[in-house]
Amino acid sequence: MDHCGNGKRKAFLIFPLFRNISGKRYAYDGNLLLGIMNLLLKDTSKGGEIMDVALSEDLVLLDVEAEDNFDLLRQAAQRLHEQGYVKDSYADAVVAREKVFATGLPTVMGGVAIPHTDVEHVNTPAVCIARLKKPVDFIVMGDDTETVSVDCIFMLAMKEAHAQLTLLQNLMGILQDADALKLVKTGESARKICTFVRERLSKVEE
To answer: How far apart are the C-alpha atoms of 140 and 18, rounded to whole Å?
Structure first.
């Protein structure tokens, strides 16, 4: 059952909502921005079980070198495509969406981004984590005038809109937890990061 009514529309307009409620003070205060997002996600997801989402060591990329944010998105999308999780159209779609609805977020430990796109570009639900050797700039979610230096992204490939909302809600728990985010950003192995994030994302919020 789709817990969001017209699920696809709600799932992929959740970030643009910030254009109506945010200003520079939200862009500069990452905790406030994340808190508002978490409340919105709780209001729309209404709990529910997360569908099986692939996150393997092969989907954790460390020391990635990227020319800019779009190069980074294409590298992560390529890995998802190589593993069969997304369609040929996914990379172009996720880049196009980032240009319109940016996903950069200030957090308790620097910037992150959570790029994603419409469900029709996905074969099998998966998450790809890419940690950069040197940060690249992303436009801040909800504020086209601000950028944030990003050194880690969580690229989402989901098949069902309500599942993406629940996944995003649990991802907010990592992004608001300094210790959790530190492990992702400094963990020495893909296996350790994969195991930790998979456990955190599998939790069901009521």
So the answer is: 10
Per the CB < 8 A criterion, the answer to whether 159 and 149 are in contact is no
Q: Which of 44, 26, 45 is nearest to 35 (CA)?
A: 26
Q: Given its phi and psi angles, is residue 132 left (phi above 0), alpha (psi -120 to 50 degrees) or beta?
A: beta
118 contacts: CB under 8 Å, gap ≥ 6: 8, 12, 93, 97
Residues in the chain, how many?
A: 206
**For residue range 169-194, what is the model confidence (pLDDT) as tens digits?**
788 889 989 999 999 999 999 999 99
Range of the domain at 175: 57-202
Is 43 a residue whose pLDDT tops 50? no
* pLDDT, tens only, 68-79: 999 999 999 999
User: Is 177 within a domain?
Assistant: yes
